[in-house]
Design goal:
Elements (H helix, E strand, L loop, with lengths): L3 H33 L2 H5 L3 H11 L2 H15 L4 H10 L7 H30 L1
Helix pairs in contact: 1-4, 1-6, 3-4, 4-6, 5-6
């Protein structure tokens, strides 16, 4: 039998590990969507892992939805989409591609903040 303070410390360590896992999984969804340029392509290799880890924590659908949302939102800032925008708009002027990439990364950062805050609210209050 562990002394009381050690059991509290073990509980705190487990809570920190759970929170770190949740944070990593949110960022992983953003990265997979950004790198592949496709929400389906970003979800395909990661969805099983997300739902399996979510099952271990007790919220499998939550992590699957988080993966889908973060990958889907990050797609809009990915290079394939930026190049598509440039192609549709009639070509790039000097320096326009770097401006779009910078803007896309800013938007991914804002989306990451919103997803992290939403996930924290859903995990702690639902």
């Amino acid at each position: 039998m562990l002394p009381a303070f050690l059991s509290y410390a073990a509980d705190d360590i487990e809570e920190v590990r759970t929170q770190a896992t949740k944070q990593y999984l949110q960022e992983q969804g953003l990265i997979s969507g950004y790198l592949t340029g496709s929400s389906v392509g970003g979800n395909a290799p990661m969805m099983t892992m997300q739902s399996t880890i979510g099952s271990g924590i007790g919220k499998p659908l939550f992590f699957a939805a988080l993966q889908n949302s973060s990958a889907g939102h990050a797609v809009f800032a990915s290079m394939p989409i930026i190049l598509l925008i440039l192609a549709i708009s009639g070509g790039a002027r000097q320096g326009e591609e770097s401006d779009l990439v910078r803007y896309g990364l800013l938007m991914v950062g804002l989306v990451a903040i919103v997803i992290v805050l939403t996930a924290m609210v859903l995990v702690f209050y639902c």
